[in-house]
Protein 1
Amino acid sequence: MKDKNLKLAIIGQLMTAKVLPEFDIEAFFQEELHKDYDPNAEYNTKPIPEVFDALMAMELKEEDLLGITELKLNGANDGFFVVCPLWSGMDDYFAITSLDGIEALQNLEVLNIFGIFKHDAPIDLSCLTKLPKLRSLTISGGNINDLTVLNEIATLQELKVSFIKFEDRPDNHEVLRRFKVQEKERIDISDMGFKLDLN
């Protein structure tokens, strides 16, 4: 996957679902770093590089990826707290800038994305067209720009968006109308595009 934080989020969800074993950080410190782990140490407030690298080195089995039918990308993901046990959620350490590679989840039906996109990085949704079973998509927060690619997802039945920024174009608004997303009266237009708070 192009974005390592996306892989980390998927690993975290697989751990939560008990498909992958929980990461034993105490054992990792003893065996790999040759020192005791201190849960109250300052290093826990930032991503621990060695832990991150260890998770990135994991090879995800195709059968495990195919077992994911619902994916939640948000700040509560267990994978983030394995890497940064005392993460406050206020920093963008785990912001996702690309969804490329998500097509490995060929049985994904529901995708919920809440406040995990980096605000100054436009997100390309075209890779979602490679998910043959995607029927529900929720996006809260982020710079999407082009919504029209969602028209290419024949299986998509439900779209919910809020606090997103996208280009103020008729075809983008047509996507919202197609999925009966109600636009609120209060909107903001900036140089970066069109910003909406949508139900």
Protein 2
Amino acid sequence: METTRDVRHLEELAETLWQERHLTELLLYKLVCTKLLLAVDEQRYTGLALNEVDDVLAVLRTAEHRRDDVVQALAVAWGISIDELSLSTLVARAPQPWAEIFEDHRRSFLSLTAEIEAAASENRRLAASGLHRVQQTMAALTGGADTGTTYDPHGQRQPATARPSLLDKAL
């Protein structure tokens, strides 16, 4: 039998999960924005975009602490360990409409997690590619070890030689 206290805990948890879900979607948005900046090699805004990702992560961590407090209160009310109270457990144990609400949150968090992992992976790949391009450019300009290779008049590969370069304003 559902008590008023149980309903209050379920309402509070559902609201907390909505807020956390919104923040998770915002994190995905910021990661996608960062990915777009990296893809077009817009380096001057990359730092700002990464700061925005960090800001959302900080707010998300605070929301996670709030969720932990709400889950703890519900676990005590239900007489179970907090470790046993997952979204799957909530779906199985909560009465309707709460079970359906928690199932919706569970599916959404799983989907968002997969999308965030994919965006973060792509961002790492793009950042590494950009770093490699910068390193190649610097090596070519300074005569560093990685100046690449070229071909001689006979079609044979040979190391490229760095020559003095005059830069006007930008590469």
Protein 3
Amino acid sequence: MAVRKNLALMLKTMISKNPWQVLYTIAIAASVGLGIVLGMQHFSAASPLTAAQMLPEPKPLTGFILENHRGEMASENIFRGHWSLVFFGFTSCPDYCPMELQKLAKLLNRMGAGDELQVVFVSVDPERDGQEKLASYVHFFHPQIIGLRGSNVELASFANFFGAAYDRSAIFNSKVLSIPAGINMPVEVGEQYQVNHSTRVFMVNPAGEFVGSFTSPYSVKDMLFDMQKLMGR
């Protein structure tokens, strides 16, 4: 009981001195935890590939409508005819999203795949990631990266299909609030909040089927080997 009181007092003191450092620490821990839980629930470690973890059976991707970074409607048709790597994040991400998108951009360059491989970045922060901001963000990393956005309800449904868990955290009145996926951010929170999201990169085959994923940490070399094998190169 004394330990719990001491921890509670310590957290209260940290929040009063530097609330955003506490929130960021919680967000990082939550993101790592989401990745571990997802791996235990959906994927098998046994695979002939170097880093990719494949589903037992492909899952057809159907029945969604989002908006791409050009402001155009996007459906499951954007995944047909080529391999796709799908990553969930947000443009205000301070570290993990930029690092992963740099890796994926390097992969595109090393593949030299043209239209055979695309990267899809899905923003799970619709309140802050408008169409123009998303377009500028993905273009900064690589011209072949496609940005997708939508309403909170649409994004939650799309992420749930892949098993990509996420939520948002904010400090309001000295308390940490957790806003689940699919729920609009409370107006009183403003734009000062953190997004906690899955760190997996999901694979969709040219038939538009979700077939597996890469989980961090992984290298560009390992992803290159696996994608070339899957693409029959």
